[in-house]
Amino acid sequence: MPRPLTRAQHMENAAFLRHLRRTGNAREAARALGFPRGRFIRRRTLHPAFAVQWDAALVLAHADLTAQRAGTTVPPPGEPYIRLSRTGRWQVRRAQAGQIDHAARQRFLAALGATANVRLSAAAAGFGACAFYNHRYRNPAFAREWMLALETGYERLEMALLASGLADSFADDDWRHNDPPAIPPMTVNQALQLMYLHQKEVTLGNAPLTGRLRPGETSQARSALLALLYEEKQERQRMKFKIAEAERLARGEPTYQRWAPGDLPDLSQVTGWSKAKGATPTDETRALFGGWRLGDIPVEKRKRT
Fold it and tell me: Most C-beta atoms within 10 A of its C-beta, which of 58, 67, 105, 220?
């Protein structure tokens, strides 16, 4: 079985077929690419699919050249495609004007990989969404690339959505860097009402929950409520820390401590870490735990069970 062609070889074959479709001469098509004809003849011998494409390009080229000699109008060379005829046989057909070709498919897939929106991608390629759905049904390779492009677009959108929620995205923080507007006139009663409406949302997790259990409240419910308040408070502290770190990085300040020479002593000379008293046996192959090893602890100091 021949070795599969690489992507570079597939690109060379596609360029060769375009020139062959225009000229009908394999030698001139290979010369236009700067390769000898034998390079493509060997691929034709080893790969039947490329041989079929070669023959189809020659047939279409000769048909156009014959029509030109007869003085009839020849359509511009397009991409031939394979489809089922009315008699139930597979045949090669000439690409019609306004039909989805390779360039349109690439524009659609590129847009789909950026937006994950089929209708918008079809409009970017200049066709309707139904045309690409029908083409996906007839073309298995295009259906595979459609699914890969859709997965890529979904992952990119997910990453963009997550990145917009980070503290260093600075997406909606313009208001914090401007002077606040003046408070509109209001009475004391109106101000107290507004504070009452937003008190729980603003002070959630900040005020400690004290006092006796409310009527009907169990200790398990109180413990669950305290856990929720604690998590909310921790989350707000983490959010404030992330915002402060993002603003510090934006100012160009480092977020870590730079140790100057001499700030830390030589750790190999540090003593006093062990709590053991007296000279105990040492074993360089094992680590000390508090200065004692289990086998070296005197019997009178061992915990009796």
Answer: 105
CB 113 within 8 A of CB 152: yes
Whole-number Å distance between alpha carbons of 110 and 104: 10
- Distance between terminal CA atoms of the chain? 75
Give tens-digit pLDDT for 119-149: 989 988 888 999 999 989 888 889 999 999 9
Residue-averaged pLDDT of the chain: 77
DSSP 8-state class, residue 281: -
Q: 96-105: per-residue pLDDT in tens?
A: 666 788 888 8
Mind listing the pLDDT tens digit for each residue in 275-293? 555 554 455 555 555 455 5
Average pLDDT over residues 263-274: 58
Handedness of CA 6, 12, 15, 20 (dihedral sign): negative
Identify the CA nearest to 19 among candidates 34, 5, 6.
34
Q: Please enumerate in sequence order all residues whose Cβ is within 8 A of that of 81, keeping only pairs 6 or more positions apart, or say none.
A: 92, 93, 95
Distance, CA of 125 to CA of 103 (rounded, Å): 9
- Return the number of other C-beta atoms located less than 10 Å from residue 288's C-beta: 14
Rounded Cα distance between 5 and 7, Å, is 7
What DSSP letter does each residue of 99-119 carry, written as one string? ---HHHHHHHHHHHHHH--HH
- C-alpha 56, offset from chain centre: 40
pLDDT tens digit sequence for 79-91:
665 666 666 666 5
